[in-house]
Amino acid sequence: MKKTISEIQKDLQGLLNEVGEDDFARTKALYLKDVQIMDAEGNPIDPDSVDLSIEIAPAKEDKMEEDNEDEKAMADEEAEDKAEEDEEAEKSADINAAVNKAVAKALANKNKNNTVKGKGFDMRIDNEREGMVRWGSLKHMSQIKVASGDPELEAYKFGRWAAACMGHKKSMDWCADRGIETKAHLESVNSAGGFLVPEQFSDTLISLREEYGVLRRNAKIEPMTSDTKRIPKRSATLTASFVGEATAGSETTQTFQQVNLVAKKLMVLTTISNELNEDSLINLGDSVAGEVAYSFALKEDECGFLGDGSSTFGNIVGIINGINNVSSNAGIFTTATGTDDTTEIGIGDLHSLMALLPAYADTPRAKFYMHKSIFHGVAEKLVTAAGGSTRGELLNEKYSPNLFGYPVEFTQVMPTFATADGDSAMPLKYPIIFGDMALATCFGDRRSNTISFSDSALNAFEQDEIVVRGTERFDFNLHSPGTSSEAGPLVAMKLGPAS
């Protein structure tokens, strides 16, 4: 029988433990008589050249003592290891707490002050915009309240959508993953088509237009689900009267007129840089939304205040012309002959204008509407000359413009301090309007905004730019301009002729 040294030693150890030291020598000789010792390569080895000394196994009690000592040593070692782990865990917890505190403080400071001093400001990482970068500060969306409460995120989403509409593959995938449609919009009156602005971004555009536009912010908004909407307006109300005993009362009838709104299509063209990349999407969204919304708001204000019914203003008759078109309108205060420019307006003229406003229109929404230069060059100068304010208040106090307790809306499309003139053509004769615009007007909002992009229109290719075309549908109606016997909810100051 062939066996290796290790196998033989194992067998001998078993024999020693079994027969004891007294009989082991004879038992070993008998065992080796039938065994051939081999090395690791399988070669035979002389038994006399091999040390096959074997020690008897320790008694059971001794072995138990050794095992106990080993277990105790292992327990002590485990206790030391656990103590070290607990110490490391405590240090790690302290570090994590410190890091979390520092991150929370940094985020709090960021939300408190959104000003960016240098380029390449890294946005905080989240699921919506991971690793995006904003260059500089937001110019438009930071001025409004957005549904998410995060103007930068809204700008980034709008930028992603705009980039997808321009064929940016990664942005198209991004929008598709989030259910944001980039579907082209085609209809009979717009054969060139465009991309219908998703509902979540339409709200942002409306908010921006309200921020920039005076008309949309103050007129009564009428949502339009179709291109035409008719709104009933009460033209005559019921009349109560005293009657005698057994006498029939006089019947009165409440009558209504129809206020018609027909949505007009308004288009705006603007250009943006063609340098589209992942790190500029926030700025792209802010720029596109802001520029389009500002252009829409400006035209809405021009139509609402200055419209003369011509195609230039979408056939809309604005507030100034609407009031002026009523013969002998009771809601017009005309300054005295010789008061034909703004420098000659007196504080009494302002009081006379306010006196024309009916009591029902003297609501918390009542405001003055005028160009900023009229306010500072005329109204503020008159009030300051009347006294009551200290020099420190006038120089240091930043305030919302008010006049006699009423808010003042700066309407930059109205006549200026330099252009208002009683001897000029319409509408330069009317520098100031006063009253509740929501009671006198309706603003129809169709909400179907579209935006298209082109790299070839308006020489965009040669100038390495992208042309942005936006469309909206709206209408405006001054339904209560006043009559010859009763002023409407808006009254106007008209400069008199030269003496």
Question: Can you give keywords for this protein?
Answer:
499 residues, alpha+beta, seven-stranded mixed β-sheet, six-stranded mixed β-sheet, 13 helices
Q: Mind explaining what this structure looks like?
A:
This protein is α+β, with helices and mostly antiparallel strands and 499 residues long. Helix content is 37%, strand content 20%. The protein contains 13 helices and 19 strands. Strands 5, 6, 7, 10, 16, 17 and 18 form a 7-stranded mixed beta sheet that branches. A 6-stranded mixed beta sheet has the order 11-19-15-12-14-13. A two-stranded parallel ribbon has the order 1-2. The protein is elongated, with a radius of gyration of 45 Å. The termini are far apart. About 5% of the residues have low confidence.
Describe the structure concisely for a colleague.
The chain contains 13 helices and 19 strands. The protein is of the alpha+beta class and 499 residues long.
Write the layout of secondary structure elements.
Layout: E1 2-4, H1 5-19, H2 24-33, E2 36-38, H3 60-112, E3 121-122, E4 133-134, H4 151-165, H5 169-177, E5 184-187, E6 190-196, H6 199-212, H7 214-218, E7 220-223, E8 228-236, E9 255-262, E10 264-273, H8 281-306, H9 319-324, E11 332-334, H10 347-355, E12 367-370, H11 372-385, H12 391-396, E13 402-403, E14 406-410, E15 432-435, H13 437-440, E16 441-445, E17 450-454, E18 465-478, E19 490-494
Parallel strand pairs: 1-2, 7-16, 11-19, 12-14
Antiparallel strand pairs: 3-4, 5-6, 6-17, 8-9, 10-18, 12-15, 13-14, 15-19, 16-18, 17-18
